[in-house]
Specification:
It contains eight helices and 18 strands. The radius of gyration is 22 Å and the shape is globular.
């Protein structure tokens, strides 16, 4: 099976299936000298793990990582980092009745069409269980990015018809996001979302929404101008996650109704108090800076979402991913079997009524992996002055 590796210089390869012995991730290209331990991985893994609340699947996986290689005496040693996770709460028997039936909304049929064979237990390789590996790799990427004052944070922007009003995405804090099980930083909207998702769950259904992801402190100059545009790699990264059906950045699809005079972000001179050196991570929200300590450039607005011509502008990167409703719902649905005969299916197992709360750390991980890869690539794009 091809397509299990992501990145150019910071390369991540994952392996494992939903109901197999476990999952593994190999990170190749992480520079030596980064302090790294299991404790660095746990915070984001806990945000992703199942069983957090009644809004998530009740599969009980501890998601405890084991670092098998790439770390010596508490620091990365420049060799591939291998991290494993052992599955402990599979219920493969939940899927025995549907092994020859195609679940609506799932990859069952397309997997059969491609390989002529599939692991029907929980979706096999197509399961979101695979993302535990991505989140672990993303935690390593986040730690590398933090050394350059770059922060990546996501939150739930929308659930069904409920939309959170976030005036300044760069001002949102991790504490605000983690204050509720929904991971929406606006308390009033979060409470409405929680009740709405629970009502959908009680109705034996599911609901989708939107996750907004923000990267601050990103220097200007990341991304390649043609096929490896930063926006293109971000889109690929997020669309590679299960259940993502749409990607936009900056003003996104709203530009379809704008004129150029409305959409263009006006460049502004550096503010008088700004120094020519990179600001601390806490000061990276509102300003832009050039990676080689050249003159600062900023724009008065950020409809371009921090990227122009596929290259980072130094302004905050703001993007969004649309997440579909969970395909597995505890309702009887019409379908066909592998022989094309009409039948009905009732999906058992344990599933999220809304994927958004657990998606947030997954989205953050993929954004971090793209940024750290392009940060390493940017360092070879020109000679130092």
């Amino acid at each position: 099976m091809a397509g299990n590796t992501f990145g150019k210089l910071f390369r991540v390869t994952t392996a494992g299936v939903s109901h197999g012995p476990g999952n593994v991730v190999v990170i190749d290209g992480c520079p030596a000298g980064l302090e790294l331990s299991v404790d660095d991985l746990l915070p984001d893994l806990r945000r992703r793990r199942p069983g957090q609340s009644k809004l998530t699947t009740q599969r009980d996986e501890q998601d405890l990582p084991e670092i098998w290689s790439g770390v010596f005496e508490g620091k990365t040693d420049g060799t591939p980092i291998a991290i494993t996770f052992r599955n402990s709460d599979q219920r493969s028997g939940d899927y025995g009745d549907i092994k020859d039936k195609y679940r609506p909304g799932h990859a069952d049929y397309t997997f059969d069409a491609k390989y002529g064979f599939r692991d029907y237990r929980g979706g096999g390789r197509s399961s979101a269980r695979e993302t535990v590996s991505r989140v672990a790799a993303g935690a390593v990427a986040k730690k590398l990015l933090a050394r350059d004052g770059i922060r990546v944070l996501g939150y739930v922007k929308q659930v069904g018809p409920l939309i959170a009003h976030v005036p300044d995405p760069t001002a949102v804090t991790l504490e605000q996001v983690e204050a509720t099980p929904v991971r929406c930083p606006v308390p009033e909207t979060a409470a409405q979302m929680f009740q709405f998702i629970d009502d959908v769950r009680m109705d034996r259904d599911s609901i989708g929404g939107v996750c907004e992801l923000v990267a601050t402190g990103v220097p200007a100059g990341l991304g390649e101008p043609v096929f490896d545009k930063l926006k293109a790699d971000l889109a690929k990264a997020l669309l590679s996650l299960p259940a993502v059906t749409g990607f936009e950045y900056g003003a996104g699809f709203a530009v379809a109704t704008m004129r150029g005079s409305e959409n263009n972000d006006v460049f502004a001179p550096p503010e008088a108090h700004e120094s020519p050196v990179a600001p601390d991570a806490a000061d990276c929200n509102a300003t832009a800076w050039e990676p080689n300590h050249g003159p600062r450039v900023r724009t008065e607005s950020n409809r371009h979402g921090g990227m122009l011509g596929g290259i980072s502008s130094g302004m905050p990167i703001v993007c969004r991913a649309a997440i579909k409703p969970t395909s597995s719902i505890p309702r009887t649905q019409r379908t066909i079997d592998r022989d094309g005969r009409p039948t009905e299916i009732l999906v058992k197992g344990r599933h999220d009524p809304c994927l958004l709360p657990r998606f947030v750390p997954m989205g953050e991980a993929m954004v971090a992996l793209v940024l750290v890869d392009h940060l390493l690539r940017a360092r070879s794009s020109k000679l130092s002055s």
